[in-house]
Design goal:
The complex is a heterodimer of chains A (125) and B (370).
Chain A (H helix, E strand, L loop, with lengths): L1 E5 L3 H12 L5 E5 L2 H7 L7 E5 L7 H9 L9 E5 L4 H9 L4 E4 L7 H14 L1
Parallel strand pairs in A: 1-2, 1-3, 3-4, 4-5
Chain B lengths: L16 H5 L5 E5 L5 E4 L1 H7 L8 H9 L3 H12 L6 E7 L2 E9 L8 E8 L1 H36 L8 H31 L8 E4 H11 L1 H7 L2 E6 L5 E4 L1 H17 L6 E9 L2 E8 L6 H4 L14 H4 L5 H11 L3 E7 L3 E9 L17
Parallel strand pairs in B: 7-9
Antiparallel strand pairs in B: 1-2, 1-5, 3-4, 4-5, 6-8, 9-10, 10-12, 11-12
Classes of the chains: A alpha/beta (125), B alpha+beta (370).
């Protein structure tokens, strides 16, 4: 499974990449901001978009909105990662087109399974 | 005369008007029955000079108190009936916020007279807002580095970085555990901030309380194993349903269970029980630990309260948990209570309204019971 991961914190990018790739199920392509993701996403179609919410410059929802304008990313399942997780905020995130939210701090051992579960639940819905 | 209604023959005899003029807080004195203004001190006159000419003094009194006549009379009724000694009101005037203290005058006046003292709290409220914002922002900012720290240590502990010497592994476990503790503290501070601001959101649903108990016991599994304590689940009434936020109620149960576990001896038992209590659904967490001393019981639900001989580091307690638990339970229309005896143990009861007998159930929100 190919994951496009957009996260401004370098250390969290590193942890997420290690967490996902050690399972053998994921290939992780990472961007440090929304603008870089838009420029770099090219023609590769990932299986899931994993987006930090609060980033300098474009926020996660703004980034997703722009990525959705690209034909090859228009329907790719999207998941936000955030430390802010009030029920109304989660509702707001899902209204912007994400399947779900993973709360920070995340468990590196189960991060991959969390992504698979959210994508599977979205496919069933 | 500034007002259309004359004050002649209505101003009570009083030698202290000059004293009131010397005070910096605006003060008005008015008949508690007619609402006609008897006196305002110099500070009140300065505050309101732009608005005086246009109204009768009764209208002025209602206007400066920020209340329509009916509500003002209701508050005065509370004072007359001795329901309250003082009524406190938040009033916005000319861009400032005032904490207004309304009382009936005693002794000096032959007439029934009310006195309202206006204290400008604009600066204090702004300072409070800035303090809360700082705490909230710092707490959020701490989460990113903690995500990296906890994540890195989690990867090491999972073996992703290869084999580690036993001693080093033990050190990493200590770091990991304390990162969890820091996260707990930050979460508690943020929750308390939300509660203080009235910003905590609740996503209520009709919930089988058995499922809450199972979720809470599952969530506390890792914590429990560190203390060698067994949790006994005692379901006396299995069909209890309440209209609550399931995540927040699991948070409540996990907090009560973690306290019970922390204060139990190794090899001890903690019981979580579901049983009807009158019209209410009761969830009880029972431990056989050291109990809570009588002098500690009164302040149990206060903030940053630590009970017992065990220190914060050994129990992982923030001292905020029970105040958050109480705020959540109360918000959900419930009541939390406890009984405790030193050397015998402590029982916490959470009583929630039974959804079947509630008026505020949303007919459409039955999905969770599916």
């Amino acid at each position: 499974m190919i994951v496009f991961h957009v996260e401004d914190d370098m250390d969290i990018r590193e942890i997420a990449k290690m967490s996902l790739e050690m399972t053998g199920d994921f290939t992780v392509v990472q961007y440090e901001c929304g603008e870089a993701a838009i420029v770099g996403s090219g023609n590769v179609t990932p299986d899931v978009l994993l987006l930090d919410v609060m980033m300098p410059g474009m926020s996660g929802p703004e980034t997703l909105s722009k990525l959705r304008e690209m034909d090859h990313l228009a329907t790719v399942p999207a998941i936000y990662m955030t430390a802010r997780a009030q029920p109304n905020e989660i509702d707001e995130f899902t209204r912007t087109g994400a399947l779900g939210v993973i709360i920070k701090p995340f468990d590196p051992v189960t991060l991959g399974q969390q992504i698979l579960d959210i994508v599977a639940a979205g496919a069933d819905a | 005369m500034l007002f259309s209604d004359s004050l002649k023959n209505k101003v009570p005899q009083f030698d202290g008007w000059g004293t009131l003029d010397a005070l910096t807080d605006p003060i008005i004195v008015f008949h508690s029955e007619s609402l006609i203004l008897c006196h305002m001190n110099s500070a009140a006159a300065r505050l309101t000079e732009r608005s005086l000419i246009r109204s009768s003094s009764q209208e002025f009194v209602q206007s400066i108190m920020g209340l329509p006549e009916r509500d003002l009379r209701a508050h005065l009724g509370e004072l007359t009936s001795h329901e309250s000694e003082t009524v406190r009101l938040d009033v916005g005037l000319f861009g400032s916020q005032f904490d207004v203290s309304l009382q009936l005058a005693k002794g000096e006046f032959a007439e029934p007279v009310a006195i309202a003292v206006f204290r400008d709290v604009t600066g204090q409220l702004e300072a409070d807002r800035q303090k809360r914002e700082l705490v909230s922002n710092v707490s959020h900012e701490l989460r990113s580095p903690l995500t990296a720290i906890k994540g890195a240590m989690g990867l090491i502990l999972s073996g992703a970085a290869g084999e580690m010497p036993a001693k080093a592994l033990q050190m990493v476990q200590i770091c990991h555990r304390n990162a969890d503790r820091l996260i707990l503290i930050i979460n508690d501070i943020l929750d308390l901030d939300k509660i203080t601001n009235g910003a905590m959101m609740f996503d209520n649903d009709h919930v089988q309380l058995v499922s809450l108990v199972n979720d809470a016991v599952e969530a506390i599994e890792g914590f429990k194993s560190r203390f060698d304590v067994t949790i006994d689940i005692d379901i006396v009434d299995s069909d209890m349903i309440s209209f609550v936020d399931p995540n927040r109620m699991v948070q409540v149960l996990v907090n009560l269970l973690s306290n019970a576990i922390k204060f139990s001896s190794a090899g001890g038992h903690v019981t979580i029980r579901l049983m009807r209590h009158g019209d209410m659904n009761r969830m009880s967490v029972i431990d056989h630990g050291e109990g809570i001393a009588t002098e500690d019981q009164e302040r149990l639900f206060g903030r940053f309260v630590q009970i017992g001989a065990q220190n914060r580091a050994s129990t992982g307690s923030t001292g905020l948990g029970l105040s958050i638990v109480k705020a959540i339970v109360n918000n959900q229309g419930g009541v939390i209570s406890f009984k405790s005896r030193l050397g015998v143990g402590t029982t916490f009861h959470v009583d929630l309204p039974n959804a079947a007998s509630e008026d505020n159930c949303r007919e459409s929100d039955t999905g969770r019971l599916g």
